[in-house]
Amino acid sequence: MNKRIILNRRQFAVGTAASAGALLLPHGLSAAKPNHKLKLLSYNVWYGFTKKPDRKANYLKFMKEQAPDVVSLQELNGYTPEKLADDAKAWSHPHSILLKEKGFPTGITSSQPITGVKRTLDGFHHGLMHCQTHGIHVYAIHLHPGNWEIRLREIDLLLKDIATLPRDAKVALAGDFNTFSLHDKPVYDRSEDMIPFFKRLDVRTKGKNLRNGQLDFRHLKRIENAGFADLIHSKRKAFLGTFPTPLRQDEDMGPARRLDYVFATPSLAASCRAASCIVNETTGLLSDHQPVSATFELTTK
Questions:
Q1: Percentage helix, strand, coil, to 5, in the chain?
Q2: pTM of the predicted model as reported, rounded to 2 decimal places
Q3: What is the pLDDT of residues 101-123, one digit of tens each?
Q4: Does the residue 106 lie in any domain?
């Protein structure tokens, strides 16, 4: 009889200790749920490896080593959904979507299911793709490469699309914006060849990169005015350009500049723990763009 009473008391003590945290919480609150890391990586892979295809194997190795959770890709020339899915397996992503199969497609891959896929071709030079995965909205961005007027219209269409989302939506914009940030203007102002290069480029390509002979910073300013944060700028210690790379060092590609970005809404930006341009000897030979990434710590629902 006494032995049974002792055992019951021990069981009571164990049960009390296990629930102590809940008992100490203020009335109406539950224990905090664990957070999980989310790494988002964006990469313009240059003509879908149709140029200098021998770099593809090292690219797949690099992506596996990066171990991203979500990937936004640009310039998937020549790709099919099946081909992108096969690539994604190299970095353990069972889910992938492709914008289109012609021109310069974008793509998104993820370690978790992808839902709410929206593809928009009208009004965008390369198109726009949006989906949900890991509890966030992801836009794969690739703006017009050589005309500031078209880029400005694309930005307005992008913001119009974002305005249809719930007000509390966590949104990431990741990709090749092909335009310039005011945060980088001091670096560009010190460059002796930035404006001369774009003058040469506009003559050569009949483009409109310069507006009244100057760089146009309004595109990204509109995004930031809409509440988005430039994550790499907020986390970096110094400027790093994402274009060009040594892969095309034998061509006139102009001074280093930042064309690839990750932007996030305030609620998502608050959970960003790191963001950077990944620049090293390896990435310098994988594409003519450097990859960019952002890591978040999200609350598990």
A1: 35, 25, 40
A2: 0.88
A3: 999 999 999 999 999 999 999 99
A4: yes
